[in-house]
Amino acid sequence: MEKILIVEDDEMVRCGIEDVLKMRDWNTETASTFAEGMKKIKANKYMLYILDMKLPDGNGITLCREIRKKTCNPVLFLSAYDSEGYIVEGFEAGGDDYVIKPFRTFELLARIKSLLKRSAINQEEKRKIGIKSGEFVLNFERQCLIKNNIPIELTLTEYRILYCLIANSPQIISRSKLLEIIWDYNENYVDDNALSVYINRIRNKIGGDSEEVLIETKRGIGYMWTLKTEEVYEIISEKWN
After folding, report:
1. Which residues, in sequence order, are bridge partners of residue 235?
2. 161 CB contacts (<8 Å, ≥6 apart)?
3. For 146-177, how does the pLDDT look when each residue is reduced to its tens digit (9 = 90+)?
4. Is the dihedral of CA 99, 101, 104, 108 positive or negative?
5. How many angstroms separate the CA atoms of 25 and 21, rounded?
6. Mean pLDDT throughout 31-41?
7. Among 10, 76, 84, 194, whose CB has the most other CB atoms within 10 angstroms?
8. What is d(CA 55, CA 14) in angstroms, rounded to the nearest whole number?
9. Higher confidence at residue 47 or residue 186?
10. Rounded CA gap, 20 and 233, in Å?
11. What angle is formed at CA 106 by the lines to CA 105 and CA 111, rounded to 5 degrees?
């Protein structure tokens, strides 16, 4: 039987999830540290990975990146942090879902069932490497925006802003959410005027002279990426021993 891996340092949470899954006849393996989790990830393949974001000797983000080198099977993050920055970082690393602690058992089970159903219908191994939007491609691995096959030089903060806008299109992203993302990653306070400067710089870099409005300002609300988007995947071969 295929297994689910739970990497969680909190014994009560780890054992609680394991017991609930075993009651539903799902085979599980567990790890309580980053090192133990990494060892199991490298040695085995699981149909679902449940990863704690913060571990005593590492973090779930690094574990997720290791998983994404080898499989597209779903990754569910657990975290006590509900900050927008942490959530975005989890999805950027290749995560499929994110549950905030403390969580309700039935909610967790519903999310697990949904992810397992998605995993079952995947007939080929693939991983998401970017988002295509018009003449642009947002490349996750290189953390850059490519326009007509030519990379556009962006600072890390500019990339984070663009990622949030493009990945959530056509949703309007509030200025407060964008400020929170910038603040989380820079670990420094960024004021509202600085965000406006960043947006203008991005507009100039991606085509400020174009008649087409790529980043639309929603006055009093925030910003929206206007082009349609589609996810870009790369088919990968099995690398498991």
Report:
1. 126
2. 178, 181, 182, 198, 199, 202
3. 999 899 989 888 998 999 999 889 999 999 88
4. positive
5. 7
6. 94
7. 76
8. 12
9. 47
10. 33
11. 100
